[in-house]
Design goal:
3 strands; three-stranded antiparallel beta sheet; 71% helix; mainly alpha; 279 residues
């Protein structure tokens, strides 16, 4: 039997998934599958995945290239599909978590905070949606659409990381537990890393597309992998925020509304017992 914060008691629990295995599996699905796609594509399809629009030599294939060839694309799409549902759930967890932390926010920031946590939710939602779409609409099938979805993913991802880090700080009102400090530190590190990699990605993309500089696309691809894995690392910090939580499936038994109701229930139960004894 488990107690919920405000709803009641959960009984007959048929499923209990702690946050640690949930977080590890959710992040490992894209992380491991991307690694497998990269290694197998480089070993068996090197020339195919290293083609460039400028026809210059390339040594590091892009994520779109290694996940867009078969059979790698089947693995990638399957893992992204399995990974997306828990990610959408975390969007809602994060929003409700920030709502529950509103009492810790400075009164002058509260109205802005309540608005920004809604923006934060939708940024996270759109980011996850774009990740799913970009996996299923490959650059080989429809490059213009794939490119636009990728741009939206990058913008929403960066915006979410920045805003979420700010809201995390506001929701603690400067009072951090030991776990909060670790989570906040890694959030800042991951955001700084992905922002730096994004700058490198944009610069190398221009050098490749405009000037056809040899090796520029390899730098672009390397920045892509840094962005991908730091993005996963940032989202993994949610484990630190929810590490004492679990997924539960069971029967919810609400608490009595007030003490009088609780007392009346107890009296009723006692009367029933007395009648049974009398009979």
């Amino acid at each position: 039997m488990a107690k919920t914060k405000s709803k009641g008691v959960v009984e007959e629990i048929f499923l209990n998934i702690p946050m640690w295995p949930f977080a590890v599996v959710t992040v490992s699905l894209p992380g491991v599958s991307l690694f497998v796609c990269f290694v197998t594509a480089v070993i068996f399809q090197f020339d195919d995945v290293n083609e460039t629009m400028c026809n210059v030599k390339n040594f590091i294939p892009s994520i779109s290239a290694v996940t867009g060839v078969t059979p790698q694309t089947y693995l990638w799409r399957t893992c992204i599909a399995l990974h997306s549902t828990p990610r959408f759930a975390v969007c809602l967890f994060t929003y409700n978590h920030y709502v529950s932390r509103a009492h810790s926010v400075h009164p002058q920031r509260l109205a802005k905070y309540m608005f920004l946590i809604k923006v934060n939710f939708w940024l996270n939602f759109v980011e996850n949606s774009c990740l799913t779409l970009v996996a299923y609409i490959t650059n080989r099938e429809n490059y213009p659409i794939h490119e636009k979805i990728f741009v939206v993913f990058m913008v929403t991802s960066l915006a979410y990381m920045l805003l979420n880090t700010i809201l995390f700080n506001w929701s603690r009102a400067g009072s951090f537990s030991g776990t909060d400090r670790v989570s906040y530190y890694w959030k800042k590190v991951m955001f700084a890393s992905i922002a730096t990699a994004t700058a490198g990605l944009l610069a190398s993309f221009i050098l490749h597309r405009v000037y056809c500089v040899v090796g520029a696309f390899s730098v672009f691809s390397a920045c892509e992998y840094v962005i991908a894995y730091t993005n996963m690392g940032y989202h993994f910090t949610a484990y630190l925020d929810f590490k004492d939580r679990s997924f539960l499936f069971g029967r919810l038994c609400p608490y009595p509304r007030n003490n009088n109701e609780s007392s009346s229930l107890a009296v009723t139960n006692n009367n029933v017992k007395l009648k049974n004894k009398a009979h």
